[in-house]
Structures are given as structure tokens and as C-alpha cells.
Amino acid sequence: MKTNPHDWLNEHGDYLYRFALARLRDQHQAEDVVQETLLAAIKNPNFSEQSSARTWLTGILKHKIIDCMRKQVRETPASQLMIDEDANMDEFFDETGHWAEKPQAWDVPQDALQQKQFLKILQQCMDRLPQKLAAIFAMRDVDEMENDEICKVLEITTTNAWVMLYRARMGLRKCLEMHW
């Protein structure tokens, strides 16, 4: 059964928007990349139906999101990459550089309601992070991209990527321990 490109927005628009919004955390940017995705798909109809239209469109969308993230990284001053001017990550470690108090083990919530509540808190904590840190955390720990690939996408050094990922994880840890 052939899919009609004119039906893609109605059939897949909400899914694509939610996918983009979860990664970009900005409504306008999410709307823009979904529009760019649909335009690219219509202008270059290489869809061979070897996969579903949603899978194909999501693949295009991922590239549009990466382009958007690259643009953000290039245009954001390094000073905005800090979680908080007053944030002191040293409080997590002792004089020898080891954990002062080991992170709590987070059990995987079995109950659907508990899991939904946890994901809501996690999203709120991610929303509190600077956009770049949330993006690199999502790419590495949610989308499971390799560090080399993230560095190419964001056009940053490996060291910078690890520092940003460390700051994102520490910020999330602190937020989750306070709110979860």
C-alpha cells in the first residue's frame, strides 16, 4: 500500500513534534524542524517503502535536529554552558577525588504511575539544565550515541563533550535527589 505524502502531517505530525520537542526542548524549534523534515521528504521523495513512512521521516528528523543543535552550539557563548554560577560540584567529592557520598541507587520503577511520575520529574530536571547540557545528555544517555559521533554532530572536542556530559549528569543527579 503506497503512502501519500500529503497524509504524512496528519498521520505522523504529532509523533514527529513530540520526538523533536523531547530533544530540543523548544516549541518553536520543534515545529520548525518538523516542517523542515516534511518539506525535505516531499521535495526529495526517495521513500521506497522498505521501512514505514514514520521510520523514514524520523530518520530525516534526526538529521534536522542534529543540524539545529549544531547551530545552537556554534551560537551559544561558553559562559552559558555552566549549570549555575554558584553550583559547586566539589561538594560531591572528598579531598582525594572520590565520592563523598555515593549516588543513590535508583531502582527501575515497576509501577506505571511511579514511572510516569519519575519521567515527569526527570523532564523537569532536564528543563532546568542549560539547553546544550540537556542536549548532550539526551544524545549520549537517551539516544545512546557514541562520544565521537556527538563530537562530530556538535563540532566540539572530546574533552569538551566529557566536561559537558559530566556537568549535565551532576546537575541531573542533584535535581533528582532533591525532587525524587
In words, what does this structure look like?
By secondary structure, this protein is mostly helical. The chain folds into 2 domains: 5-75, RNA polymerase sigma factor, region 2, helix turn helix motif (Rna Polymerase Sigma Factor, Chain: A, Orthogonal Bundle), CATH 1.10.1740.10; 79-179, Arc Repressor Mutant, subunit A (Orthogonal Bundle), CATH 1.10.10. The chain has 7 helices and no strands. The protein has helices at residues 8-24, 27-43, 53-75, 112-128, 131-142, 147-154, 158-179. Helix 1 runs parallel beside helix 3 (53-75) and helix 5 (131-142) packs across helix 7. The longest helix is centred in the middle third of the chain and has 23 residues, at 53-75. The radius of gyration is 19 Å and the shape is elongated.
Give the total of beta strands. 0
Please provide the ordered H/E string of secondary-structure elements. Answer: HHHHHHH
Predict the CATH topology of the largest domain: Arc Repressor Mutant, subunit A
How many structural domains in the coordinates? Answer: 2
* Full CATH superfamily name of the largest domain: Winged helix-like DNA-binding domain superfamily/Winged helix DNA-binding domain
Name the poorly predicted regions.
Answer: none
- Please name the CATH architecture of the largest domain: Orthogonal Bundle
Domain RNA polymerase sigma-70 region: 10-74
Family: Belongs to the sigma-70 factor family. ECF subfamily.
Protein name: RNA polymerase sigma factor
Organism: Methylophilus aquaticus
